[in-house]
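ARCHIVE CARD
CATEGORY: sequence design from structure
SOURCE FIELD: tokenized fold
FIELD CONTENT:
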């Protein structure tokens, strides 16, 4: 049986606040917390049933945490036990505003996640719910994917192990990392108080969600499958050697649904390194993605061409 915690902030509501389309959230009013409850769960439906009242606004002082604390505590790392947990809380938020056609539908977002991460598939269970800023018309957030996903893993891990496990998929500081890595490592850390209460909106447009949450029962992720796939790195020679080991068309032919990115970026980089026709290769990639039923978009291919051109100029 897995367990997770609800904690109550004793000083203020713990939720985002948007006023006139701007984020005016202020979480500095106090860091005094109280242990509220411990949720024990065997199924994602059980967990959904426990969290849903708070997602809908039962108590806007409540936050989700993954570590044990004393009854009254100040929220900092030293005051939260570093437990080995058999699940991950994934904070998934895209920076590129290319997802307005799917970002209000958790079932479509789940399909996109399976398409984007090789270590996810149709058999993996998860609980999905929206981040506090999801679908708020502010700085193009209404065009981004902004969700939380809770997934089981087949090995209990402590904080450093969780962070290191997903290091290759987590956001960094660079523009390239922010565009291509969608996971914020914050929710993997034990002292994080994850917002679950509904957003406070004043004179701010907010798009409707198809559903508030989605529970899908299934298997745990094998942590050995979550390995950093080979992606373009600062080692130009390693990247060049890998890309030029096959023809551009070979990389395109290797694109398959559920594992598109690995061969897509290689096809794009091969095109750039070989000075081939971008329009021709891009159309071939688009045709291949359609053939295999991929959900990837032309904008993502455009971004990959921009990224490859930036790197290739430095080689």
């Amino acid at each position: 049986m897995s367990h997770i915690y609800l904690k109550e902030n004793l000083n203020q509501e713990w939720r985002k606040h948007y006023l006139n389309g701007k984020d005016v959230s202020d979480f500095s009013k106090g860091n005094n917390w109280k242990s509220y409850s411990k949720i024990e769960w065997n199924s994602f439906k059980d967990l959904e049933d426990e969290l849903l009242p708070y997602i809908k606004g039962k108590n806007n002082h409540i936050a989700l945490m993954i570590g044990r604390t004393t009854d009254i505590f100040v929220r900092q790392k030293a005051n939260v036990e570093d437990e080995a947990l058999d699940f991950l809380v994934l904070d998934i938020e895209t920076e590129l505003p290319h997802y307005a056609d799917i970002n209000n539908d958790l079932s479509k977002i789940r399909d996109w996640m399976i398409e984007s991460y090789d270590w996810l598939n149709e058999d993996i269970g998860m609980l999905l719910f929206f981040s506090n800023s999801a679908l708020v018309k502010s700085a193009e957030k209404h065009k981004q994917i902004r969700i939380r996903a809770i997934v089981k893993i087949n090995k209990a891990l402590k904080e450093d192990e969780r962070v290191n496990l997903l290091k290759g998929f987590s956001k960094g500081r660079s523009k390239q990392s922010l565009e291509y890595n969608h996971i914020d490592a914050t929710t993997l850390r034990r002292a994080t108080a994850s917002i679950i209460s509904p957003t406070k909106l004043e004179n701010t447009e907010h798009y409707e969600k198809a559903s508030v949450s989605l529970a899908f029962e299934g298997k745990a992720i094998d942590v050995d499958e979550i390995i950093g796939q080979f992606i373009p790195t600062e080692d130009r020679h390693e990247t060049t050697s890998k890309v030029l080991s096959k023809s551009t068309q070979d990389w395109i032919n290797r694109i398959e649904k559920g594992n598109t990115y690995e061969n897509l970026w290689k096809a794009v980089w091969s095109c750039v390194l070989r000075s081939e026709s971008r329009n021709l290769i891009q159309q071939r990639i688009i045709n291949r993605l359609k053939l295999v039923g991929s959900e990837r978009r032309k904008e993502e291919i455009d971004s990959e061409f921009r990224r490859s051109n930036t790197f290739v100029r430095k080689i």
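CARD ANNOTATION: The chain has a mean pLDDT of 88. Residues 13 and 60 are 5 Å apart (CA to CA).
SHELF: design records, drawer C
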